[in-house]
Design goal:
Distance between the termini: 59 Å
Mean pLDDT: 78
Helix content: 55-70%
Oligomer: single chain
Number of helices: 12
Length: 450
Amino acid sequence: MLNTILTNSLFSPHDPLMLFYIGCTEGLMVVWSFNKLLTRNSRSWHPYFCYMLVYISATIFDAYNNFKVYFVMIICYLLIMGIAFIFYDDPEEIRLLIPFVFIAINYASTIVAAIIVWAAASWAVPDFPPNLRMGYASQTLLCILFFLSVNGISLLKRTGWDKSPIQKLLLFVLCPLVLLVLVLSVYYTPDYPLTLQNYTAHKLMIAACLYLIAIILFTTSNRAAKMHEAILRSASLEQLIAVQQAYYLSLQEHQQKLRHLSHDIKNHNRAIHGLISLGKYDEALAYSESLVQNAETLTPVTECRNVLIGAMLNDRLGAIKNEGVRISLCVMVPEQLNIKDPDMCILLGNLFDNSVEACRADKLNSNRFIDIDIRLKGPMLYIKVKNSFSGNINFSNNTYITTKPDAIFHGIGLHNVKQVVAKYSGRTIIEHKDNVFSVTVILFHPAEPE
């Protein structure tokens, strides 16, 4: 009975329901695995849905015409590569490797599923499905094997699978060695007599090669992601050190000026007293006003209990304030925050820099402003940066694109902000209306330092 059911489900080249089932399951595997292994960007789901319809249509067309495996692989690879680069936001190296991982796991699972169903149905060499044509049973089994495989490598990633020397030995020595042996075995297998055992072993070795390739490529992509994060961390640490250095130099200069002012205060008082005693009230007023202006130059943009936030506010906003931009601040945070300084530096540095650049690009506006609100509300850190801008903005598919000419090297500020926000389980709200641009960031503030 089982043999008859499986045999009838193996070959149905023009069954519309079978073709629709293949297309939907293949599309589901792409969406599920990419959302698990990559980071979705902010592009709307409408073009994503349309693109997936194209991919599903292509898989149905391939299944209907029973194209060669190599041709199908090329078409599918090109389509999913487009999905990775258009709708996901990871570094280029990762978006190049993950489609290969998908293809390798997909075809490995396809071969294993075909072998299992073929063995249960007939177990005869000539009956093995040509071009790996799928039926209801084999396609369902393919999906199960695919989901288990992707979950497996994702689980290994979360457990830190490449940290210990033994794990590194297994991944970077044993896996390539086994892969080489399998490839050589597959190469020499056709010279053996065409028996059931040899044919099965040949197919299983191909599947094992594909699984090993997927593991090696995924490990490579995982290390590329860590390297990209390390580079970002290094840049943020350099920025943090520069901010702190500028802050302490400014503080030192500020204290030195205060000492000079304190030293001269008696002389200033005597001078004002002398002018008043001589009845030169206008001269005394002018003299006192000059002292007030001089004292105001010693006052920083803000006095903040949190040294890092205060340093970044004074460093980023001090110069723009002297250029006639109105600065409005509301900072209510404790002396210590349980958010790492490099993360805070990335977050505030990019937000402040973007607002300053927007104001400087809008020089014709006499009402330029920057409003900053930073406060801790329970377990959430609330940050809002609002500023005037010229109205020149490139906004497409819910994505803000830099207006600078060298877009390759710019436009990553908001992306870096979103990465930090995601790390602290927060959310980002970006709005623009009537020449006012605002970014609101809400971060989970952990009870203990991260």
